[in-house]
Each structure stands twice: as C-alpha cells, then as structure tokens.
C-alpha cells in the first residue's frame, strides 16, 4: 500500500482522532495524550503543528489516498545539537504491517536531509516495540544501543533503543 506525507489540514482531525483513540498506539507513545482522544484534541494538535516554528518542527500527516492514517514529525534540538533532530511517528492500527511506516520514515528523512541543515535524525522507541524498531532498521537507521531504564510509562520502568540516521 502506498502512502504519502503532507502538511496537516484541520479537516484531518476526524481521522486523526480515530487513529489515536487506541490504547495499543498510546502505550508506545510518550505521555501527555488524552484517552479517549477526541476530534477537538486532534484539532488542537493540528493547529499547534501548523503554527509551530518552521525551523524546528517538521510535522506531517501520513496519508493513504489522501486520508490521514498517522503522524510523523521531526523536531530539531538546540544548542550544540542544533543539527540533530528527534523523530516520532505512529500509524493507525488497521494500517500496521503494510510498509506504510517504513515508507513514511524514508520520505521524511529525504525531505529533512534535502531541505534543512539537519545532519542527524534519531529515534528512541521503547525496547519492546519491535515493530517500530524494524521500521527504523528498514529505513536506514542504525541501532546505537539500549538506553537502560530510560523511561517510566504507566508506572513501569522501561528500556529504550537509540537509532539514528545521518546525512551522507
């Protein structure tokens, strides 16, 4: 199945809410997202991404047939890490296992490396999130190591893995 990345549109809110109103997805994301996730929550997120600093926040809808089925973003770090950015993403569960994540990650990396001065993109999935780790590996990211006891999610201390891709 083919996907494309594009800028968010406020009318994506319904589909975004449908995708994120899923505990399986929320369990693998950082804290701060409400559950249940409403259309108003989605509108607020989309508005924030559209209004964000275009030199530090690169946020895209992952789409299939122009329908938002996920989200992917690259967020520039600062100070001595100003040429480094962190990537995060998720895909609606009904689209898992179809190559959409890998395609979206590759598209975003190409965009970032061709249109910004960022030279390193990294991602830190939970160590148990094998699907996300596999997406990164298939997208040219290199596993750099395990960040032991690096996060607390739902009261459980978790390891995370560090992956990066650098501009050649």
TrEMBL record:
<dbReference type="InterPro" id="IPR000182">
    <property type="entry name" value="GNAT_dom"/>
</dbReference>
<dbReference type="GO" id="GO:0016747">
    <property type="term" value="F:acyltransferase activity, transferring groups other than amino-acyl groups"/>
</dbReference>
<protein>
    <submittedName>
        <fullName>Protein N-acetyltransferase, RimJ/RimL family</fullName>
    </submittedName>
</protein>
<dbReference type="InterPro" id="IPR016181">
    <property type="entry name" value="Acyl_CoA_acyltransferase"/>
</dbReference>
<feature type="domain" description="N-acetyltransferase">
    <location>
        <begin position="11"/>
        <end position="163"/>
    </location>
</feature>
<keyword id="KW-0808">Transferase</keyword>
<dbReference type="Pfam" id="PF13302">
    <property type="entry name" value="Acetyltransf_3"/>
</dbReference>
């Amino acid at each position: 199945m083919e996907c494309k990345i594009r800028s968010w549109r406020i009318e994506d809110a319904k589909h975004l809410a449908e995708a994120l109103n899923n505990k399986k997805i929320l369990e693998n994301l950082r804290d701060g997202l409400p559950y249940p996730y409403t259309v108003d929550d989605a509108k607020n997120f989309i508005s924030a991404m559209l209004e964000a600093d275009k030199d530090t926040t690169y946020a895209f809808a992952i789409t299939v047939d122009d329908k938002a089925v996920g989200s992917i973003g690259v967020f520039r770090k600062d100070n001595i890490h100003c040429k480094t950015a962190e990537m995060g993403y998720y895909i609606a569960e009904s689209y898992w296992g179809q190559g959409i994540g890998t395609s979206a990650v590759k598209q975003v990396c190409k965009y970032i490396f061709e249109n910004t001065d960022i030279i390193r993109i990294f991602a830190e999935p939970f160590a148990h999130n094998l699907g996300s780790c596999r997406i990164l590996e298939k997208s040219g990211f290199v596993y750099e190591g395990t960040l032991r006891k690096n996060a607390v999610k739902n009261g459980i201390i978790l390891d995370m893995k560090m992956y990066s891709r650098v501009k050649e």
